[in-house]
């Protein structure tokens, strides 16, 4: 029997902050999203803070007490197969170049079982933070033999199927940039037939990027699949493969089917040059992804001060109407030793890197981990709207400002109206005196903030 869930007094900052909402779920979908006239008294409802995650009752009533509810996060650019490989594959210089060389050399040593374990671990960790769609680029080292490339593909497809009830995994093999041979294209075609989502690559690293882009687009056209490319991940302002990619997207009429990730060189070139490229991307209907954590770490390694930091032109891309996602990229591997698959943390890093701290900008940053990547990835039925699947995350915060300040660990992660992870009880100070100080100060600060919001 499908459980009915009703959540009172939920805050939906991406819809309206003028009111709280009552949310109803039935059959795994939103059945109603109703604006309240004020805070609803619901004595029969269980306070979300005190709920233990039990779903035994046919009808579950919860009181969010003003907590934020967001549609499930969408991570539009990850490398799940590389995650947690740092102990095996180091990077002494911290450069992108060394990371590429070291991982490529190590790839033949990784068994399918090891790769699958890394994908499963990193995907589950991301899901635990509230992510419901994960797009992962996959290592595809055909130069070491078809077996080396396909063991990653097979491992990823198996995890995709096993986690299907809990999240959507989209898979994009990274077509080789060193030699995009017929054998590599044939293996990529086989991968699509097996169940990968689309085609990826890093053509700016190729000695002949434009012909490689043409061959990749021709194959994607034949297979009817989307394209998602690492694009101009470089401090060199003359790296401009985004131009050729945009023109090919227009020629094929592929609005919404082509994504460019990184776009670091935009941050290194003159304003007028960047504006031209961004204009082409907008005209082509392309999506884009910024990877602020990894690019802040990797870029500018060869610069004397002032040091370029590599994060793309976030505000300009948004202003052009391009759906721009903020995503995790790598986790604890030679490309990026940090990261944990938490898109709320990535939103904060984006806000720092792009100077986005005004109230409007904070809300835009939240859209960069929800609504915009949903458009980039083509997520069906996305959002907190009647009739859509009830994929969402409730967070222990009542405003976007508090959300990005506290990065609350306490989250309630739901998929299709089923709670996958309930937050533990609030931690307390071991000292009763300190606990009292804490509760009193929080209550007073909350009162002042509520009063400010009403003014």
TrEMBL record:
Pfam families in UniProt? Amidohydro_3
Q: Which residues form the Amidohydrolase domain?
A: 62-105, 183-417
| Residues annotated as transmembrane | none
Which terms are listed as keywords in the entry?
A: Hydrolase
SUPFAM superfamilies for this protein = Composite domain of metallo-dependent hydrolases (SSF51338), Metallo-dependent hydrolases (SSF51556)
- Name the enzyme group at the top EC level: hydrolase
According to its UniProt record, the EC number is 3.5.4.1
Q: Which GO terms describe its molecular function?
A: cytosine deaminase activity
Q: Which domain of life is it from?
A: Bacteria
PANTHER family found in the cross-reference section: CYTOSINE DEAMINASE (PTHR32027)
Stated name of the protein: Cytosine deaminase
Organism annotation: Paenibacillus favisporus
């Amino acid at each position: 029997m499908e459980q009915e869930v009703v959540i009172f007094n939920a805050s939906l900052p991406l819809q309206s902050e003028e009111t709280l909402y009552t949310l109803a779920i039935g059959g795994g979908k939103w059945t109603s999203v109703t604006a309240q006239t004020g805070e609803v008294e619901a004595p029969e409802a269980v306070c979300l803070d005190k709920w233990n995650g039990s779903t035994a009752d046919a009808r579950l009533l919860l009181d969010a007490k003003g907590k934020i509810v967001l549609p499930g996060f969408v991570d539009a650019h990850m490398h799940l197969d590389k995650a947690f490989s740092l102990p095996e594959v180091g990077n002494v210089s911290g450069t992108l170049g060394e990371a590429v060389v070291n991982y490529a050399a190590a790839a033949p040593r990784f068994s399918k079982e090891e790769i699958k374990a890394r994908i499963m671990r990193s995907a589950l960790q991301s899901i635990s933070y509230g992510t419901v769609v994960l797009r992962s680029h996959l290592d595809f080292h055909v130069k070491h033999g078809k077996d080396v490339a396909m063991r990653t593909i097979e491992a990823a497809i198996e995890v995709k199927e096993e986690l299907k009830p809990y999240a959507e995994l989209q898979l994009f093999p990274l077509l080789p940039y060193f030699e995009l041979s017929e054998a590599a294209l044939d293996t990529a075609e086989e991968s699509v037939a097996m169940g990968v989502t689309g085609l990826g690559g890093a053509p700016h690293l190729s000695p002949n990027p434009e012909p490689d882009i043409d061959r990749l687009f021709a194959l994607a056209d034949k297979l009817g699949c989307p394209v998602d490319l690492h694009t101009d991940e470089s401090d060199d302002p003359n790296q401009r493969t985004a131009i050729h990619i945009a023109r090919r997207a227009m020629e094929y009429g592929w609005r919404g089917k082509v994504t460019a990730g990184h776009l670091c060189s935009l941050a290194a070139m003159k304003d007028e040059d960047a504006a031209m490229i961004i204009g082409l991307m907008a005209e082509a209907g392309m999506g884009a992804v910024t990877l602020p954590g990894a690019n802040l770490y990797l870029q500018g390694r060869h610069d004397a001060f002032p040091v370029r930091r590599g994060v793309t032109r976030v505000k300009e891309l948004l202003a052009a109407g391009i759906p721009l996602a903020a995503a995790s990229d790598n986790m604890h591997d030679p490309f990026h030793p940090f990261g944990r698959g938490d898109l709320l943390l990535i939103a904060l890093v984006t806000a720092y890197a792009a100077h986005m701290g005004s109230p409007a900008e904070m809300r835009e940053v939240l859209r960069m981990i929800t609504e915009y990547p949903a458009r980039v990835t083509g997520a069906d039925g996305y959002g907190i709207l009647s009739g859509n699947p009830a994929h969402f995350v409730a967070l222990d915060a009542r405003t976007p400002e508090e959300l990005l300040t506290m990065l609350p660990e306490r989250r309630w992660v739901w998929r299709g109206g089923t709670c996958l992870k309930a937050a533990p009880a609030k931690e307390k100070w071991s000292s009763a005196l300190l606990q009292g100080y804490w509760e009193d100060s929080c209550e007073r600060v909350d009162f002042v903030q509520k009063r400010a919001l009403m003014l």
